[in-house]
Amino acid sequence: MSEMGFLTDAVDGSKVKLGDGERDRHANDWATEGRVEATPDAVVYPTTTEDVSNVVAVCDERGVPVTPYAAGTGLEGNAVPVRRGVSLDMTEMDAVLDVRPDDFQIDVEPGVYGSAVNEAVEGDGLFFPPLPSSGSISTIGGMVANDAGGMGTVRYGKVGDWIDELEVVLADGRIVEFGSKAKKTSSGYRMRDLIVGSEGTLGVVTRATLRLKGIPEQIRGGRATFDSLDDAAGAVFDAVRSEVDVAKIELVDATAASMANSYLGTDLPDAPMVFVEFHANHGVEREVGFARSVFEAHDVASFEVGADDEADELWELRRELGVAVRSANPSLEPVHAGDIAVPITEYPDTVRYIKELSEEHGVPIPCFGHAGDGNIHYLVLVEEGDDEAMREGVELYEKVVEHALEVGGTCTGEHGIGLGKRKFMGREHGEGGVRAMRTVKDALDPNGTLNPGKVFPDDGEDPL
Amino acid sequence: MSEMGFLTDAVDGSKVKLGDGERDRHANDWATEGRVEATPDAVVYPTTTEDVSNVVAVCDERGVPVTPYAAGTGLEGNAVPVRRGVSLDMTEMDAVLDVRPDDFQIDVEPGVYGSAVNEAVEGDGLFFPPLPSSGSISTIGGMVANDAGGMGTVRYGKVGDWIDELEVVLADGRIVEFGSKAKKTSSGYRMRDLIVGSEGTLGVVTRATLRLKGIPEQIRGGRATFDSLDDAAGAVFDAVRSEVDVAKIELVDATAASMANSYLGTDLPDAPMVFVEFHANHGVEREVGFARSVFEAHDVASFEVGADDEADELWELRRELGVAVRSANPSLEPVHAGDIAVPITEYPDTVRYIKELSEEHGVPIPCFGHAGDGNIHYLVLVEEGDDEAMREGVELYEKVVEHALEVGGTCTGEHGIGLGKRKFMGREHGEGGVRAMRTVKDALDPNGTLNPGKVFPDDGEDPL
């Protein structure tokens, strides 16, 4: 560890942590826990942009990898320092710098938690629409790095659609600003959008100007249950095709529902469900009625809609679903928390395909997620410690990704590539597409300093 | 010209034009006509992606510049072949390839005119929301290259926000696909968004999958007149701040109105005006009423709202305004068709600043444009042939750009950088920001084959 001494030339020594506890805590994220040993040589907690610049610059000079680390909630190993070096923990840069309600903008440091953005602007009647379900436990920096999506994405788009400007430290330590505080610009390359979703491999975000929106005057939430999963998935497709103006439309299959009941103590019916939310400034009942008529055409068994606070419990449950399905049965181990997205016309067939795989192989695969985006979260669960079952589980898991790619979809809707999806990059983007991305990476980070081992399939073995 | 013979090894000879007429026709765009002589050595009309790939590849090998050319309606010299070589005219690649209404997608070749997209999907009840005012005379390829915006951008975003997938030929002739047909993805770098707005300097778009939307059930258009320009600009700001749900909100100042009257034979009042359009599936009168109350707080003199077709004339006039202000007085010459955008809080002051410059110097500067985006189109008009007046005019024109940058805005809201705005790149993005863009350019186009002389301030003298 003593070879990390140069870091204290770059930043105040109190910001450099070399102890085992800190280093171990940065060796994993939610995806890799217990599977990958990637303890960094040092953890640095910068508190200013200059700190970030200084650390990245000295590491770049010395060939020491720097892996930005946010809240550690990544699901593809995105922030795991597989080449060791420095884990750059951004959570101390957590200031809300400025709120400009009349411009619908807020400037934040990357370590600000998503929910803190909403708290900072609630008094102005504003909110940050694309927050992921993990909004209260994940940071803006992590969301930018993965171009996160959430339940509101079906109406409002992804995190990347709500960023006006980014301050970024590049691999050589240069500090740059990309984007504009003007709502629209055609000035030069869209570098801001290149940084979004690049998982810390092209630069470290040190400040973000986010765009906000007025909290809708009318919010209604509700739950529809269906007799069959086919009906539920068909109803979602039909709602999207008919442009029912939903702000959230989430599928929860019967397997996921029963796991939620056992883990969270809820009393969901043992049936496929669709959770919906409607946002409007007037006429919200019209949209609720429109949804009802669409759902009725798919033999909806029940459809209950209430006011905002009545639905709160529903969304709280939905947010905890990811953890519930991983943890409900301690004797079952998840293969990987998968996330694919397909064109909406392919959504019902893709859900059916997954359930057929599940039945055929007798393996539970709960499905849920942002149905309106054609986005499916699924978890292949196998007996803990059964290597043969794990091998088969991985095969099933990968079959789903391959199916998504076959029908024109993507291997990752909102979790990024990280370690876990690297093997699908060539299949999704073609050799030429991956090569173009690699060209950009090599140009902006010629020494491979920033988050090495991620995104690209040729960048070392898969440690997962 | 005989040195262009190698082109017929790459594509069928009938697609290569060496005659003066064709070459002269590709020497300019709307911005440079009469100001720049940049006749290409050859014009090539590819009809397939392979044609584009072959031409770009042989040119790249031989160091011959290739400048993609669409409809020639650019306002910053974006497609003018200042280094000669090949003008790659994409207008023969004008097929609508596929329409998938249930996925809200259309696949088109780049030479398809914007209005043709709407015609192709109207029968399915769909439209392409971000079309620029020039939609009937400009192509999708040109719009993608400039990340064009339009009147609908205030509600729907820019062209770049409505692209799911692009097929692109890179500088070495490689054919790649960027983006996804899934509505959302976090798979690898957002190369699609890097290509958008790169003005043909990073690749040539050969196919685009555009996202569509249902035509709203209720459309209302109207016109508000105000006693003062301050009132009009303040009313726009207040409407945006209050989130009145407008689909278009356009400012037309009294100077522009009177020029429209003289050139187009219209009978607009000689007063500052705001044109508005409302889109909704229900409750549109609520939004109209909301707008009325906001406008009344700014002493609106009149506010007339009619059904869709009544407003058609208004929008037709608005679309022709750009030409009208350039041409109304034949003894006046425009300095440059400028386009800036500022944060909406700065919009009223920026409009006032321009009018003060105009009055102070006795120079007409009509202002109009997409007010809700903080986007101002302005034209400094000087006596034709008066060099001293032209020098002063250029100064005024540049003062406006500098003002926009000072208040956090951009030097170009929707026209791109091209030749005309290169000098402001450093000021807007900083030396580091421009250098990062240049790094990307040099990596993806190491020989500088694609549209050389554009975007970057260091790339040769300004021929404008």
Automatic annotation (TrEMBL), chains A, B:
<keyword id="KW-0809">Transit peptide</keyword>
<keyword id="KW-0285">Flavoprotein</keyword>
<dbReference type="InterPro" id="IPR036318">
    <property type="entry name" value="FAD-bd_PCMH-like_sf"/>
</dbReference>
<dbReference type="InterPro" id="IPR016164">
    <property type="entry name" value="FAD-linked_Oxase-like_C"/>
</dbReference>
<dbReference type="Pfam" id="PF01565">
    <property type="entry name" value="FAD_binding_4"/>
</dbReference>
<dbReference type="InterPro" id="IPR016166">
    <property type="entry name" value="FAD-bd_PCMH"/>
</dbReference>
<dbReference type="InterPro" id="IPR004113">
    <property type="entry name" value="FAD-bd_oxidored_4_C"/>
</dbReference>
<dbReference type="GO" id="GO:0008720">
    <property type="term" value="F:D-lactate dehydrogenase (NAD+) activity"/>
</dbReference>
<comment type="similarity">
    <text>Belongs to the FAD-binding oxidoreductase/transferase type 4 family.</text>
</comment>
<dbReference type="InterPro" id="IPR016171">
    <property type="entry name" value="Vanillyl_alc_oxidase_C-sub2"/>
</dbReference>
<keyword id="KW-0274">FAD</keyword>
<dbReference type="GO" id="GO:0071949">
    <property type="term" value="F:FAD binding"/>
</dbReference>
<keyword id="KW-0560">Oxidoreductase</keyword>
<dbReference type="Pfam" id="PF02913">
    <property type="entry name" value="FAD-oxidase_C"/>
</dbReference>
<feature type="region of interest" description="Disordered">
    <location>
        <begin position="444"/>
        <end position="464"/>
    </location>
</feature>
<dbReference type="InterPro" id="IPR016169">
    <property type="entry name" value="FAD-bd_PCMH_sub2"/>
</dbReference>
<dbReference type="InterPro" id="IPR006094">
    <property type="entry name" value="Oxid_FAD_bind_N"/>
</dbReference>
<feature type="domain" description="FAD-binding PCMH-type">
    <location>
        <begin position="36"/>
        <end position="215"/>
    </location>
</feature>
<dbReference type="GO" id="GO:1903457">
    <property type="term" value="P:lactate catabolic process"/>
</dbReference>
<protein>
    <recommendedName>
        <fullName>D-lactate dehydrogenase (cytochrome)</fullName>
        <ecNumber>1.1.2.4</ecNumber>
    </recommendedName>
</protein>
<dbReference type="GO" id="GO:0004458">
    <property type="term" value="F:D-lactate dehydrogenase (cytochrome) activity"/>
</dbReference>
